[in-house]
Amino acid sequence: MATAVVIESLTKSYGAGPSRITAIDQVSLSFPAGSFTAVMGPSGSGKSTLLQCAAGLDRPDSGKVAVGGTELSGLSETALTRLRRDRVGFVFQSFNLMPSLTAAQNVELPLRLAGRKADPKAIRAALAAVALADRTGHRPSELSGGQQQRVAIARALVTTPQVLFADEPTGALDTRTSRDVLRLLSGMVTEQQQTIIMVTHDPMAAAYADRVIFLADGRIADTLERPTAEAVAAHMTRLEVSADDPASLAC
Fold first, then answer.
1. ∠ CA 59-63-69 to the nearest 5 degrees?
2. pLDDT of 146 over the 90 cut
3. Which residues fall within 8 angstroms of residue 73, CB to CB, at 6 or more apart?
4. Is 208 helix (H, G, I), strand (E, B) or coil?
5. What is the spatial distance between Cα 224 and Cα 38, in angstroms, rounded to a whole number?
6. Which of 48, 87, 113, 209 makes the best surface tag, with the fewest CB within 10 Å?
7. pLDDT value at position 250?
8. Which of 199, 225, 158, 181 is CA-nearest to residue 54?
9. DSSP string, 214-236
């Protein structure tokens, strides 16, 4: 199976001297193409930092990240920006839509910023893929939160990225709408072989993934294949307890 993202001995710290914090500590991971991986961990475990380094949004102190076989550390800022623009998609908790633009114009925006001519058929197809074919002319204020997130997903996918990075994509949504968005993401993996790496705090959201990576103190604490919400919740409870009482790991 082809590999979409490879991380080797990744380390990332913030601050200096006594206040220095190691957010990611010698982490190595690989993400197969066409897979859906959730990344979880207690607050401060390093999950968002891992996502940002893997996506090329932040540079690590040491280690390697490769996306689609291209190592990021050797790229100039211009080349890194081009790679993020052309080969990586992003979805965040805040939808980050332009309020003055319609759904179609928001989806079209990454292509315009890249200097690429937008095919109206491709824009309509992207919105149809997220069940918004009848909302192309609506502005964000005229859409529900779930619809706005689906526009954000269509915008992320319109450039046909090799990897879609999602940081708490359902964090601002209610339970029913969250499930709709997660089913949409899961369907893109199974039907279109899209690779998705998602940071979440929600066991129900993680259960839609093929695999869950658990972080604690910047390191991989555990991995769970074919997760259920109950199993994910149990793993998270153990990690949170051990974070408060390290001696509990020996129990």
1. 85
2. yes
3. 59, 60, 64, 65
4. coil
5. 10
6. 113
7. 45
8. 199
9. EEETTEEEEEEES--HHHHHHHH
Residue 250 has which token pair?
Answer: 């020996």
Write down the pTM of the prediction. 0.90
Locus of tokens 């893109």: 188
- Interatomic CA distance for residues 86 and 31, integer angstroms: 19
**Among the listed residues 228, 164, 170, 172, the one whose alpha carbon sits nearest the alpha carbon of residue 5:** 164
Number of C-beta neighbours around residue 144 at 10 A: 13
Write out pLDDT tens, residues 75-119. 999 999 999 988 999 998 888 999 999 999 999 998 888 888 888
Three-state secondary structure call for residue 25? strand
Contacts of 55 (CB under 8 A, 6+ apart): 84, 88, 90, 163, 165
Instruction: Give CA–CA dist 31/50, Å, rounded.
Output: 13
For residue 171, give both structure tokens. 């964090």
Q: Which residues, at least 6 apart from 33, have a Cβ–Cβ distance to it below 8 Å? A: 1, 2, 3, 4, 162, 193, 195
Q: Are strands 62-67 and 21-32 parallel, antiparallel or unpaired?
A: unpaired
What DSSP letter does each residue of 82-147 carry, written as one string? HHHHHHEEEEESS----TTS-HHHHHHHHHHHTTPPPPHHHHHHHHHHTT-GGGTT--GGGS-HHH
pLDDT for residue 251: 41
Computed over its alpha carbons, how large is the radius of gyration of the chain? 18
Token pair, residue 46, equals: 């390093």
Report the DSSP pairing between strands 163-167 and 195-199: parallel
Give the separation between CA 236 and CA 216, rounded to whole angstroms. 10
